[in-house]
Design brief:
Helix content: over 70%
Low-confidence stretches: none
Distance between the termini: 79 Å
Strand content: under 5%
Order of helices and strands: HHHHH
Mean pLDDT: 84
Radius of gyration: 24 Å
Length: 121
């Protein structure tokens, strides 16, 4: 093999951009895990109290907020503030959904079950 050809070939391993992106993703994952351990219970309590959600619904909302954080979190910014705001927004959306469903059920009745739709069996 020609020694000059070796210099022009691409080096083995990951390209620098991919390595930097992977390092950033790992840093976000580590930050989210640390925040999860510290903030999970607080965020569930907040969603339960502030938006009148059940504990199960609040825990689901907080889980969804952490999934959003994995995709969008900026570690250098205020990750706790980002999570609080995300939980508030998701909990408010969930509360609206519950209220809308209750209002529609009061107006139109409960949703039909499969036996009601198909007639008598």
């Amino acid at each position: 093999m020609d020694p000059t050809a070796r210099a022009t070939t691409r080096p083995r391993g990951r390209p620098p951009a991919l390595a930097a992106e992977r390092a950033r993703s790992e840093a976000i994952a580590v930050a989210c895990e640390a925040l999860y351990r510290v903030l999970f219970v607080r965020l569930v309590r907040r969603a339960t109290w502030k938006f009148r959600l059940s504990k199960e619904d609040a825990a689901e909302v907080v889980q969804e907020a952490f999934i959003v954080a994995l995709a969008k979190l900026d570690v250098e910014a205020e990750p706790a503030a980002f999570l609080y705001r995300t939980v508030d927004n998701l909990a408010l959306n969930h509360r609206r959904k519950i209220d809308r469903r209750a209002r529609l059920e009061a107006e139109w009745g409960p949703p039909a079950t499969p036996t009601q739709e198909g007639g008598e069996s």
